[in-house]
Task: inverse folding
């Protein structure tokens, strides 16, 4: 067990699924719940690999199903950790769908999952920091602070007064982002 900073690439996960009849609704489209399950599993593996601990999902946000994924399509799910806080980690999940015979590949959805590392008693325990490398990882690392504050506000975990702090953070992050 180590708390040395780790790169997102060290715990990155990519999985591929072939959409079968059992995965679809009556219209022949991939069930949203099935896709969320696959995404959750990828995020769980990423967070376990990053923290080297048992982890549990505590929040999922911003999932939109903009385009149906059909029977027989190939679904690729990529996940990597964007930032670790104290005991929690944010994992970015990106989903691509492909109809191979039609030569058609498109972005299906993306989401942010938050996982918490727990000890054998189920109590949250600290996780190692994230050391982003690429521009995309650095962008997601910087903006993770904002997403976390919004998430905690929406969950009723921080009060309305804290939003002033959030606006200050937004300015700080915006200044940092001008480097990208
Ligand atoms: C995850 C769990 C252990 C957290 O316990 P807790 O008593 O709320 O612990 P804390 O208040 O100390 O929060 C732990 C971390 O989770 C974060 N957290 C809690 N609720 C959150 C939310 N809604 N969104 C984002 N982060 C959240 C806290 O900010 C804290 O992060 P930090 O340590 O990095 O600052 C507990 O809620 C749990 O066991 N939940 C069920 C998990 C589960 O079964 N998941 C599968 C459901 S399908």
Result:
């Amino acid at each position: 067990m180590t708390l040395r900073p780790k790169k997102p690439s060290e715990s990155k996960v990519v999985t591929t699924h072939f959409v079968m009849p059992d995965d679809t609704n009556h219209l022949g489209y991939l069930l949203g719940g099935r896709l969320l399950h696959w995404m959750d599993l990828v995020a769980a593996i990423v967070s376990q690999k990053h923290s080297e601990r048992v982890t549990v999902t505590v929040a999922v946000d911003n999932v939109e199903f903009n385009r149906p994924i059909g029977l027989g399509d190939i679904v690729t799910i990529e996940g990597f950790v964007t930032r670790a806080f104290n005991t929690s980690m944010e994992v970015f999940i990106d989903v691509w769908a492909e109809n191979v015979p039609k030569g058609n590949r498109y972005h299906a959805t993306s989401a942010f999952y938050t996982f918490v590392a727990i000890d054998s008693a189920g109590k949250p325990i600290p996780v190692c920091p994230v050391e982003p490398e690429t521009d995309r990882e650095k962008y997601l690392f910087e903006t993770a602070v904002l997403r976390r504050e919004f998430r905690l506000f929406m969950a009723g975990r921080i009060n309305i007064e804290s939003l002033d702090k959030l606006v200050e953070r937004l300015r700080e992050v915006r200044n940092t982002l001008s480097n990208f």
